[in-house]
Design a protein that fits this description.
nine-stranded antiparallel beta sheet, 9 strands, about 10% helix
Length: about 160
């Protein structure tokens, strides 16, 4: 057994994640509110808030709601390792590279994960300066491409 496993690897067969659970905890433990904009293939645009609160050593309360409708919030307690695992992609279907992008948060150095499967694919950009969720992601399927972009991050 490896006494010093790589904290970026959550399971065999998966690429290292861009951030460890500890890095995500350090970024979100004291709370954060993230506004996201989603553009659907049919031109529909929606915005939502993802809010993190009540963080401790084990996890955080994650709540999501449409912009302007906090009463519609749906939340659940999640472990830091669970948030990390959302960015664990199969080695055999994923390419990773560095990319600098222009973004509503500014010019960002990112790790880009291109994931391919039988139904299409997805691309995730993780900003090195913002541990946690991807700051942009696109999914492509038969209906076209859906793009979600972080518009704003307010930390607690």
């Amino acid at each position: 057994m490896d006494e010093n496993p790589d904290p970026h690897v959550v399971a065999a067969g998966l690429l290292p994640t861009p951030f460890t659970a500890d890095e995500i905890r350090a970024a979100l433990r004291d709370g954060a509110s993230i506004r996201l904009r989603t553009e659907a293939p049919d031109g529909t645009v929606t915005e939502r808030i993802s809010r993190y609160s009540a963080g401790d050593d084990e996890g955080v309360l994650q709540e999501n709601h449409p912009v302007g409708a906090p009463e519609a919030a749906v939340g659940q307690r999640v472990a830091w390792r669970e948030l990390q695992a959302h960015a664990a992609f199969p080695i055999d279907r994923t390419r990773v590279g560095a990319e600098t992008i222009e973004h509503p948060l500014g010019r960002l150095e990112c790790l880009r994960y291109d994931v391919h499967d039988d139904d299409g694919g997805a691309v995730f950009w993780f900003a090195l300066a913002h541990p946690g969720m991807p700051i942009r992601f696109e999914t492509t399927g038969a209906e076209g491409t859906t793009r979600t972009t972080v518009q704003e991050i307010v930390t607690g």
